[in-house]
Amino acid sequence: MKYDGLSFDGFDSAWRIHRHRSTRARSVRPVISRAFVVVVLAYVSGCESPIERTVAYDPRFGEATTMDVFSPRDDSVHPAVLFFHGGAWKMFSKRAFQPHARRFAAAGYVAFTVNYRLVPEGRFPNAVRDAACALAYVQNHAAELHVDPERIVVMGYSAGAQLAGLLAVAPDEPAFTADCDEGTPAPPRAAISISGAMDMSERASSDALVDYLGGTVDEIPEVYVTASPITYVTADDPPFLFVHGSNDLLVPISVSVRMQDALEAVGVEASLLELRGGGHIGNFVDAPAGIGFAPPYDSTAAWIAIVDFLDEHTSAP
């Protein structure tokens, strides 16, 4: 079943969400109320700042394998979200998702923004191993972090979505098993892929993929298969939410569609939020700040879908 062209409270959202065929349509209004609270927390003054600190989840590589922790100001146990930034596996850092982590911490999640080794040191499979170590660290240190290890969601944008996707479908895959002291992680509760590279053979001629994987698809086709989350889909996988712009020229939305179809074919819940007219870097859609332009994960529609998904799968506070 698909839900198309949703609108609410007189607001035409310019997006559509394709829900898992076995799920039942739920009221939109409660979702909006929850999403509205989370979005507003980022923009109003007087919100209590979350606790922030930095931890080294794998001390061998210095700053490259650290993550910032944003925690609610109480000692109760909370669900958690791990954010993996984009940047073609060779740019940017954990700072990219810090505003979003603060927003979630204010809403009752422990949020982590993760650094991982970048190309050339982070060439596949090293970046994936780092992501696995980060997840394992949170699971192993859940008590001191005030995290419920059974309610951890991984979320990534672009290159970071490939890392999050592999953590969800293949956390113990021998080709990129975590090699740090934290060991192999358990699968997360759920995964969110934003403009994610779920099939590395798509746009395989890009310089970013060649640099990350070590060659072209013609030279090393087996590596492209090994690095693709879609390769590992099974009925045991956790639920997925995909957020993707319909006009994404770097990672076509067809990649998320195929991944969603593969998951649904084996009975795994998967939803796809299509941002109509949106691209890979930015979308001329309604943004939480009211500026009319936002990256895919920062549109109002994306926040509504993400908060709804997290509420459903982590029993958020």
Summarize this structure as a short list of keywords or feature phrases:
317 residues; globular; two-stranded antiparallel sheet; 9-stranded mixed sheet; Rossmann fold; alpha/beta; 11 strands
Q: Can you describe what's shown?
A:
The protein is α/β, with parallel strands linked by helices. It has one domain: Alpha/Beta hydrolase fold, catalytic domain (Rossmann fold, 3-Layer(aba) Sandwich). The chain has nine helices and eleven strands. The chain has a nine-stranded mixed sheet, sandwiched between helices. Helix 5 (159-169) links the parallel strand 8 and strand 9 (190-194). Helix 1 (28-41) crosses helix 9 (300-314) and helix 3 (126-140) packs across helix 5. The longest helix has 15 residues, at 126-140. The protein starts with 6 loop residues before the first strand and ends with a helix. The model is unreliable at 1-15, 20-33 and 39-46 (pLDDT under 50).
